[in-house]
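Dear support,

Our group has been running a series of protein-ligand predictions, and this particular one with histidyl-adenosine monophosphate is the one our PI (initials K.S.) wants archived with full inputs and outputs. We had some confusion internally about which version of the output was final, so please treat the block below as the authoritative record. The input we submitted was:
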Amino acid sequence: MLGLLIQLNILNMTKKSKNKFQVPKGMRDILPEDQIYWDKVKQIIKNLSKSYGFDFLETPILEDTELFIKGTGQNTDIVEKEMYSLKTKGGDKLTLRPEFTPSIIRAYLENGFSSLPHPIKLYSIGPIFRYERPQKGRYRQSYQANFEIIGEEDPILDAQLIQLFFSISKELGIKNLITQINSIGCSTCRPGYRKKLINFYRNRKKNFCPDCKRRYQQNPLRVLDCKNSKCIEASEGVPQIIDNLCDNCHNHFRSVLEYLDEIEIPYNLNSRLVRGLDYYAKTVFEIWPEDENNRQIALAGGGRYDGLIKLLGGKDMSGVGFAIGLDRIVNLMKEREIKIPSKVRSSIFLIQLGELGKKKSLKLFEELRRAGLDVTSSFSRNTIRDQLKKADKQGVRFTLILGQKEAIDETIIIRDMNSSSQEIVPLSKVIEKLKKKIKKK
Ligand code: HAM
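Confirmed final output from the archive:
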């Protein structure tokens, strides 16, 4: 109902004049009617994170700008074009986090996690900010659930993270998803592959889009996942990284795939998947819906990073992680009309009438709540009609009516909303009576 009212209001607003202030481009209000999805998604993520052994970590939304330049990478789109950066009055250069990973590693190093038994498994939920061109499923403020496993090279963990995503989507009722997976090698094998790519593209780069012309020297691997048709054409017959992995990366990747086979996770070997962040080594993956209109809208993405912890001042150790795009999950659930049982409404509505009834109700409301009864009320409404309407709309089982007469007599009316039957009971017995009635139902 609130949703409908809001929509009518918006219609009225757009009919008349635009509001003076509007939400910033690429950002949006998440309205009460959608909270049912967000609550469900977060609740399932929290429950499953716990079973998979993750601890919750909350970091500030602002971090030192240098952390992302170093961590996310100087030559990434994020650092080159998308960061919301500011200078404080004190002269600090800060950035609204465009992703979680560098913040989590900073927090891991700063809070002494490195002296604890490894691997360390941490998860976080919150907003990220990227100054991107808004389009379907792409916002300038979006929300991620981010997972990191720090200090363990075992390929079973790469597979287990993907399994975690599939468990979350299963509990949310989201089907028909496919993992896109690749290995982008490590500091041993990638430089050789990079050289091969530069040679391959030497005579083709004239057809590249402006972004790839720039990327050609700095990071030719990024040309592989460019969506521009000219770059796709220029990449026809390109050498495959999978054929250029060192033994260590090759074996690691083979094991990841074997684990995925074992747990029957659907995947597609995607030699074009390189991911846009500098820290990845070995496994990279994304999870995409399989339906036509959502293809290539990644619901989640991640991979292994072998140099990041050292780069940010820690030991030379490996990590692996991924992040789920919560906005995209909610959009998909709505698009696919996945039903979520509506929230359990309060079972009792307290109606008050007259000055004395109102005063007594204020105290009674608190007593009912403290007794563990699920009660709601609307103290500002004065007519019984208004209050009954509200109680009815909320679908409560019982209403309590405390008017002037009842307040003087120290009684109260209990009305069963299903049968419309009423009973007058002493005020001192109302909690006991209600508990009995609720138990009976
Ligand atoms: P990412 O691929 O940039 O990876 O983001 C992960 C997911 O966040 C995407 O698959 C998408 O669902 C969602 N997302 C990202 N940007 C937007 C946007 N502008 N609008 C809506 N949704 C968006 C990372 O952020 C890595 N830090 C993941 C990771 C963790 N890798 C290792 N550990």
